[in-house]
């Protein structure tokens, strides 16, 4: 079974989360975002003290080929906003909190794209 997973990774020491997002997006997809919007934070588990930072990057331009790590098995796939929400509803994504946090922003972008 294949799952959809959004680009992501760890923040380097003293690195701004927005900079980390742009770096990870470029490394994992080859795309550079035109705009990055902070959506919010989610605490992954109460005992791990792991806080996830969620952003949306859009108006992206492909500027390079992805650079995968040895342990990554990735197929970069562009899907529509609606396909992303449907995958989240079906449990086919590892990033359901991202869909929830991004819902209003992405629906607004989707509406603009249709006009």
Task: Give the SSE map.
Elements: H1 17-29, E1 31-32, E2 35-43, E3 51-58, E4 61-62, H2 81-89, H3 96-114
Antiparallel strand pairs: 1-4, 2-3
Structural commentary:
- There is one protein chain.
- Helices cover 36% and strands 18% of the residues.
- The chain is an alpha+beta fold and 115 residues long.
- The strands form two sheets. The protein has a two-stranded antiparallel ribbon with strand order 1-4.
What would a concise description of this structure say?
The chain has 115 residues and is of the alpha+beta class.
Query: Low-confidence segments, ≥5 residues, pLDDT <50?
Result: none
Helix content: 25-40%
**Whole-number mean pLDDT:** 90
- What's the main sheet like? 2 strands, antiparallel
Order of helices and strands: HEEEEHH
Give structural attributes:
115 residues, alpha+beta, two-stranded antiparallel ribbon, two-stranded antiparallel sheet, 3 helices, 4 strands
